[in-house]
Write a structure and sequence with these properties.
8 helices, 176 residues, seven-stranded parallel β-sheet, alpha/beta, globular
Length: 176
């Protein structure tokens, strides 16, 4: 097997990316402290053509060297906004017609493999702080919660990995 070249991959540039049809998904980062996690979310968001990223609270905003290190320029292709308060972002997105879903381990959550997107519906998925998770007030303001099933000894996954799994799940339903 021969590795594919950049020409074989048929990638678009940042300007062309803006014209590509996006999946109806916005990722909200609620007080995510690691700039490398933020950069990874941008890069994965670019790969799966999400509508955008919303950065909230202490979450760093581009341009930042640590974000760029993992985003590799995706912070320039993926649209983003910043809100000081995550609840303000939730209220804005709800007003724009998004269904708000916290990615959190809560009673009554939907297991990710059972989450099915509906045609014509837009989704905003919220990922919380690496240590504390999502703010309870934000979880309370959500329309629902999605949980990734886990069977090992650890109670959670890294946020960048969690976001990638959720984005892939939505992408495969919308694009494949």
């Amino acid at each position: 097997m021969k590795k594919k070249s950049m020409l074989d991959l048929h990638r678009v540039d940042a300007e062309q990316y803006k014209e590509v049809e996006k999946i109806p998904l916005v990722v909200v980062l609620d007080n995510v402290r690691s700039e490398m996690n933020v950069g990874s979310v941008f890069r994965t968001g670019d790969a799966f053509v999400i509508e955008g990223v919303v950065l909230c609270g202490i979450t760093s905003q581009p341009p930042r060297p640590e974000i760029h290190k993992t985003a590799l320029g995706a912070e320039e292709s993926v649209q983003w906004k910043y809100y000081k308060e995550t609840l303000d972002a939730v209220n804005y997105l709800r007003g724009e017609g998004y269904k708000i879903l916290s990615i959190e381990q809560v009673h009554g959550s939907t297991s990710l493999e059972k989450f099915i997107t509906k045609p014509g519906e837009k989704y905003a998925v919220i990922f919380g702080n690496e240590v504390k998770g999502g703010q309870q007030a934000v979880v309370d303001a959500s329309d629902g919660s999605i949980e990734i099933p886990q069977l090992g000894t650890k109670h959670s996954l890294n946020i960048a990995n969690t976001a990638a799994i959720v984005m892939w799940h939505v992408f495969q339903q919308c694009k494949l």
